[in-house]
Amino acid sequence: MACTGTQMAWPPVLEYVEMLGEIRDRNGRTIPRDIGRSVRFGDEYYYIFGDTFCFDDSEQFVGVSNNTIAHIPDLTNPRKSEYMYKEPKVPEFIPYTRGEKDYTEGEDNKKENRRIVNWNFGGIIEDKPGAGTGWLFFDKIQTHGGMGEKGYGMGVARVRRDGKYVKVDREDETMIFADQEPRFGSISPLVDTDGYVYLLGSKDMANYMARVRADADFRSRSAYSFLTKSGWKSTYSSIDELEPILGDQAQGALFKLPYDSGFASVKKPYLWLGVNKWLDSKMWIARAEKIEGPWDIQFLGMAPEVMGKNSGHRYCLYPHLWGSNLPEGKLLISWSDDGVMGGKVACAYICLKMDTLSEKQVQEVQRMQQQHSSKSTAILPQPAPVAVVTPSQQAAAAVAAPSQKAAAAVAAPSQQGHTQTIESGVANLGLHDGTNEKNASMSTPGSSDLNMLPANATSPKDFHPPASESNQVQEEAKEKHPHLHKVENKIKGLLHKHKH
Description:
The protein is α+β, with helices and mostly antiparallel strands. Helices cover 15% and strands 37% of the residues. The protein contains 8 helices and 29 strands. It has a 5-stranded antiparallel β-sheet with strand order 24-25-26-3-29, with no helix packed on it.
């Protein structure tokens, strides 16, 4: 379908939020949980969750699973997930080793609420789109109540489809990255067109990057290289040698869009959407010409409050391109809210201001379309290419065929504009291969009420919060979480305020 060439306005402007609500399971049970990153694996889509507090049909608590995976049965309704297991206590997606299981289920450890957790924030990296085999990284941590007591580093394991199930195969407890290293892969991977998988990870309050060939054995340490201050190196001896990247961003997704996506800047296809490490519930968006940066990071607005005044910290914020309408600036996002014990994962549409490309910019897109095959892939599904129409072509068409425009308005009222698209559905949703017909006319689920943000939340601000606000947030975080250098432990610790 032809459309006017567009790109996200920069600095970004969040125009409004359309709340959809909590992501709940089809079984109807109460299931507090967090994380909620979505992945395409094989020919299906899934949500991956962190701590999952399980209840039976009579609302009796039956235990907590530290990570779970659920199928997304209907992409037109992102608020629904479906566990593939029917028993109330959902099994761990990343299974325990014998040693981890013995530790967690030991009587003394149960009494003191000590356990081993394996959390996956980055999703699954498929060997190739649709393969149904791939890799995942996970943080292994020993927790005591609501605090991370000991870190083990980052593990990596094979993932495969087994009928309707997704299985993780763990050979042993060997970690690919030690606890003293950055947690490469803990935040987000990105599968690029150069044959590499780029792995964003954190150490204390900074982020760093590694990469590995997409066809390599991810369990082999020698397969990795690291972004240092002097370029990519196969080894490093000190964290001081590494190049920090993406400031203090914490949880979110890296993604790369093709030149003609209708959303990304023509010359800055690398994007980030997420939250920072300070538990301030702020959304941040960034873009770059190269994966290594420099990254231009901008404040986008406050994350939505699914529980209103009862909402707590919002974190683990992820975009889901399979449910987004990029040329119209409409992104499907999810996030975790710790306003209730165990947390909620909710979703909404955020709608960003879009700019029309200039004649020169459109010509640049068309030139790039001729030079490139638009095969850009990422850890998130990508939109199908859209035809680009120059402003002069659009004007000529409006003059030459006003009757056609009027006829189209009568025949397809649901496609008349941004506001009506919000009310009637999301059109032209692109997947990374552009072939999923069942999503071609996806409708907007749930209420169409628009939660307007305060005026000061729609205007971009400087990257860092004002000093007084930043200090207040940092002091609050340090007071609640003395192990601040364990960033993910700190954030996740909020979910363990109550004994199980």
